[in-house]
Design goal:
Residues 124-220 form the Acyl-CoA oxidase/dehydrogenase middle domain. The chain is an alpha+beta fold. The chain contains twelve helices and eight strands. It starts with 6 loop residues before the first helix and ends with a helix.
Length: 380
């Protein structure tokens, strides 16, 4: 497990904290809620890579450090707790790099992994579609054989960061749909957003923020060298990728800068027993979910299937994140004080309220995730 007494992990955590403290002081970034989605800072990602705090699980021959998933976990935990601007590199480091290591060709690994470890290659994930969000087996995008490669046609929605990414990993059908075997016939492709036939259009939130996109593929040529893994093995590949996506600390700590800010405000107040109990409950939930998340990291590190547990982390974790927003708002009312810190916390609360509806949607709705858990238990 992820023990505080592990000296190697403790040293790495200390290095991450020192880096974040120095970097924030020098470059002036401030903690943000949902920073892994909303705070895109390419220069920060490059500095993180230069500091050796990216690509931790990527083997050294591909520019990484060749460490384990728990090493990556503690660094990401610190990044999220500090609300650092990590969105530029997040998807590449979280799931595209592991997919390349597991399924990619040697050429793809040598070309892409060093740039990811350096924090200088940004990826988007082209899975969800209109009518096939959480039910990815209903995806209608198709790739058909042509000389030297494939012609890709289709439309992806909610593709985070596609307008800034160097690469989109696209899930598409490469054989006709079989109603009796809905999960067969999928493949994955590495597609440049500026390739001929690709159109990226913004989906702007009511707040004015732009993270999501609609991406349309119209007869986009994808060379055989840009197929990720094996043709027809796409579903098996994304099942593993989704375990990384759904189980990480970002499913628990999106609101961590808000929670820690509120707790700091309360620390200067004489709180009564009911308020102390509410704080204890909040922290206990976070600690329990963290242990569940770490258990999935251990399973993935050992090469074990973690599909059901990853879905459980995402379900419980994102519900906790939503509930933590209003709990934090209630607790903040009891904190007397003013000044720059309180102003910052109030700003974090406003941002968290805008983002909270997304927590239980992205990465699979909770209803679909519960179906995955039920199947894993043999109940469906």
């Amino acid at each position: 497990m992820l023990c505080a007494g592990n000296p190697e992990l403790a040293e790495l955590r200390g290095c991450a904290r020192d880096f974040l403290s120095r970097d924030s002081a020098e470059y002036g970034w401030v903690p943000a809620v949902d920073g892994w989605l909303a705070s895109w800072d390419e220069a920060f990602s490059a500095r993180l890579g230069d500091a050796g705090l990216l690509g931790l699980t990527i083997p050294s021959q591909y520019g990484g450090r060749g460490l384990g998933h728990l090493h990556r976990y503690v660094v990401n935990e610190e990044l999220l707790l500090h609300g650092a601007p990590v969105a530029a590199h997040w998807f590449a480091d979280r799931q595209v790099a592991p997919a390349l290591m597991a399924y990619g060709s040697e050429e793809q690994r040598r070309s892409l992994l060093p740039q990811m470890a350096a924090g200088r290659l940004y990826c988007a994930i082209g899975m969800s579609e209109d009518g096939a969000g959480s039910d990815l087996a209903a995806a209608a995008s198709r790739a058909t054989r042509t000389d030297g490669g494939w012609l890709l046609n289709g439309r992806k929605l909610w593709t985070s960061g596609a307008h800034r990414a160097h690469l989109i990993v696209v899930l598409a059908r490469t054989s006709p749909r079989d109603p009796a075997r809905r999960h067969t016939g999928f493949s994955q492709f590495l597609v440049a957003p500026d390739a001929p036939g690709v159109t990226v259009s913004p989906i702007t939130q009511m707040s004015g923020e732009h993270h999501f996109n609609e991406v349309v593929f119209a007869d986009v040529f994808v060379a055989d060298a840009d197929v990720l893994g094996e043709i027809g093995n796409g579903w098996q590949q994304i099942t593993t990728e989704l375990s990384f996506e759904r189980s990480g600390p970002e499913r628990i700590l999106s609101t961590a800068p808000l929670i820690t800010g509120v707790l700091q405000e309360l620390s200067d107040n004489d709180v009564g027993a009911p308020l102390a109990a509410a704080v204890g409950n909040l922290v206990a939930q976070m600690a329990s979910l963290r242990q569940l998340s770490v258990s999935v990291a251990n399973a993935l590190a050992d090469g074990r299937d973690a599909t059901s547990r990853a879905a459980l982390v995402k379900d419980l974790g994102t519900k906790f994140e939503q509930q933590s927003v209003e709990t934090s708002a209630d607790l903040l009312e009891f904190a007397e004080g003013a000044g720059a810190h309180r102003t910052a916390v109030v700003g974090l609360l406003a941002a968290a309220r805008l983002h909270a509806p997304m927590f239980t949607l992205r990465g699979g709705t909770n209803e679909v995730l519960r179906g995955i858990v039920a199947r894993g238990m043999g109940l469906r």
